[in-house]
Amino acid sequence: MNKKSGITPEQFQQLLIACADLPFVRNPREETDYMEDIFITVLDFHMQGPVVGNALWHFSESIQRQHGLHTHAQLHAVLDRFPDTKEGNKEASRFLWNNAHWTRVEILRRLLTFLASVGATDQTSLHTWAQQASFERDFKGKVKGLGIAVFHWLQIRSGVQTIKPDVWVIKFTERVTGKRFAEAALIEIYTEIAPPHRRTA
Questions:
Q1: Number of domains within the chain
Q2: DSSP string, 100-156
Q3: Where is pLDDT greater, at 83 or 20?
């Protein structure tokens, strides 16, 4: 175990034992499209699952099917119809997701600008970029409001074998070891814990 993670051999052993008792469930990766990948990236953190699900359903059923909204350029054009203000972003959020989460529209605008800068403007190029990207080198600080957990969640959806160091992982680790670890350390720790056959897609 790399000592940079800050975990002691005893704590690592505690986690090994605790993880061995967890059920192993391999959820098949569901097919998504570019719009869904983008929206999950800006919505699915610090937000309740049903709210995210309802937002995605509204977009798919009420917007995407009716308006044929499928591409980066089309989404950018839709956002350009709304002022980049609190009220304008609220209206955009109501249109896209049937809610008033205006700060997520702010993040969406920033994310689209960033993705255009790295050439990730469709699902294939988005997944290709995510598969070879490093958080520290390629994403950290690039999109205000999006951090390491969101980045790794995008990587997982792109087929990368990694973990999402979200609040559940943080709390589980703290409960088992009595110590709160940084998100980057958690990725290192659980990558080491995961046996080879569980890293295989």
A1: 1
A2: --HHHHHHHHHHHHHHHHTT--SHHHHHHHHHH--IIIIITTTSTT--HHHHHHHHH
A3: 83
